[in-house]
Predict the 3D structure of the following.
Amino acid sequence: MRAAVHTDPHNVAISQFTPIAVATEADGGYRLTGKWPFASGSHQAQWTLTAFRVLDGAGEVREVRYALMSAADLTIEDTWYVAGTAGTAEQHLRRERPVRAERVHTRSGHLHGREVRAMAPRRSPATEPRSPPLPVWAS
């Protein structure tokens, strides 16, 4: 994943941490259905880290997970018509297809920086962040 995200130093990543979309486990990943509103920077982004709810067989929420997805795999819904803030590009993002398991991560792993650190660019020990690197995905 690191190689895919960091192929270009000008790549922009955005994030939506409200788990509005839902998913069920599918062959080799999750079948993701839904949309994320107010995705700032959606037209400029190449990548997005988005939260979603995983449903069990009875349709109950089992857990919240995060998917790292290429923005090219999402549909941008043009919904933002607010005077004075049109430049924020806060459109809705929609996805109606599977996401591979290796691009899905747990909430606790992100909050403690374990899984994000595995995806982030390699640094020397002297420049390694001292706090969880969640802001890396929002910058």
Remarks:
- The chain has one domain: 2-115.
- Residues 2-115 form a domain with the Butyryl-CoA Dehydrogenase, subunit A; domain 2 fold (CATH 2.40.110.10).
- Confidence is low (pLDDT under 50) at residues 124-139.
